[in-house]
Amino acid sequence: MLRIEGGEATELTTTELSAEQLDENDLREWVVDNTAEILGEDLLVIGREVGVADLRDGVDILTIDRAGSIVVIELKRGSLRGSVDFQALKYVSYVSRWSYDDIKQQFEMFLQSRWGSDLHGEDASFAETLEEFCDDDYELNGTQRVFLVGNKVRERIGSVVLWLREQGIDTSIVQFSIFKDETDNLYLDSKTLVPTSDLEKFETGDTPSDKPWKIDGKRWHLEERTNEDTAALVQQLVNSLSEINGLDGPSWTQKIYIAFRVEGTNRILLRTRAHSVQVDIRDFSINDEDDLLESAANLIDDCERVGIDTAFQENRTRLQIKCVPDDELADADWIDFTKSLVFGE
After folding, report:
1. How do residues 290-342 score in pLDDT, each as one tens digit?
2. What are phi and psi of 54, to 5 degrees?
3. Which of 33, 89, 126, 283 has its CA 20 to 30 Å from the CA of residue 331?
4. The domain containing residue 222 runs over which residues?
5. Residue 345: inside a domain, yes or no?
6. 253 occurs within a structural domain
7. CB 99 within 8 A of CB 126
């Protein structure tokens, strides 16, 4: 692997967590903070080292996906071997019987930890957090999933995961690698592995066919989620936002929105629908709410379709602007308006 800086390419050397005096706790922290980057999808973290009754160990990381499924994540800083597969299945069987109240209780316990309060805010509401994160048609704990994360994968684990997938149990292997440069800066790379039927090869596959938005997210949003007129509006908004320095995107790989990020965090979401696009802008500083609403309303000349929530998930701010194909959107106005917002303060 090479690190590119300007016109120079520097080779990175492979290393391991143990060689860098790092352990499973460090890996757990990285995954909790970066599920999308490491596991390939955004997950709502509701527990870290979750104790399981009558078992001596606990779930490394417990999460919920956008469909409402409970996702168990088991980590190994080295090889995925031994009983890690059986261990994960024990945990899945245990949480599969959890009710809404059980999951809510786990979430509220997690909020009492520094990890939970940092992620969600210590006074976060479970119902509001769930509704905001999950898809409109989610079913809480309707199914369960497993991620096995390790530095290497033993063939036996691949065999078990293949069989589980054939039985309809969504189980994924994520293999991570650690690299460092000449100044000892560390880099993490990860890929999702899907075992094939010959059990000796693994195919990189983080875009399952039952999730077409992960295979070709742009086509999904412009052809499946929207009609022809709304698709043109989406493309215009994407083009405008793409011109703003400091905004990273677009990311097309979510089911119901297109994301733009600031410093690795989603700040602007374009929620696509057949006849409209909702622009969802989050976590920005606000001095005068009335001025902000007026400026936003001027973008589409319709105040009734602009709203601001200054207590969204406690202390977070959210501005929502609903756009329809009939709106005349000036690219320069959108760029100037977005530049006027200060994110993350």
Report:
1. 777 777 777 776 656 777 766 655 666 788 888 889 888 787 877 887 777 76
2. 70, 5
3. 283
4. 213-339
5. no
6. yes
7. no
DSSP codes of every residue in 56-71: SSEEEEEEE-TTS-EE
Q: Which amino acid belongs to residue 338?
A: T
**Is residue 120 within 8 Å of 192, Cβ to Cβ?**
no
Are residues 173 and 192 in contact, defined by beta-carbon separation less than 8 angstroms? yes
Q: Do 126 and 223 have their domain in common?
A: no
Q: Give the Cα separation of 306 and 201 in Å (integer).
A: 52
* Confidence tier at 35 by pLDDT (50, 70, 90): very high
pLDDT for position 313: 58
> Which range has the worst mean pLDDT, 4-8, 183-187, 193-197, 211-215?
193-197
Cβ 58 vs Cβ 46: under 8 Å:
no
C-alpha distances in Å from residue 275, one per residue of 42, 154, 306:
26, 49, 17
Indicate whether 234 and 198 sit together in one domain: no
Does the structure show a pLDDT above 50 at 41? yes
Cα 5 to its chain centre, rounded Å, is: 27
CA atoms of 24 and 55, how far apart (whole Å): 20
Strand arrangement of the beta sheet that strand 316-323 belongs to = 248-251, 257-262, 265-272, 277-282, 316-323, 306-312
Going through the chain in order, the beta strands assigned E by DSSP cover 2-5, 8-11, 13-15, 44-51, 58-64, 70-75, 79-80, 144-150, 152-153, 170-180, 186-195, 202-204, 248-251, 257-262, 265-272, 277-282, 306-312, 316-323
Peptide bond into 250 cis (omega under 30): yes
Q: How far are the Cα atoms of 23, 82, 245 from residue 60, in angstroms, in the given order?
A: 13, 16, 37
Residue whose token pair is 């590119």: 4
Answer yes or no: do 97 and 141 share one domain.
yes
Do 282 and 316 meet the contact criterion of CB atoms below 8 Å apart? yes
pTM of the model: 0.57
- Would you state the structure tokens that stand for residue 139, as one six-digit string? 């079913």
Q: Determine, yes or no, domain membership for 242.
A: yes
User: Is residue 196 domain-shared with residue 114, that is, in the same domain?
Assistant: yes
pLDDT band of 206, cuts 50, 70, 90: very low
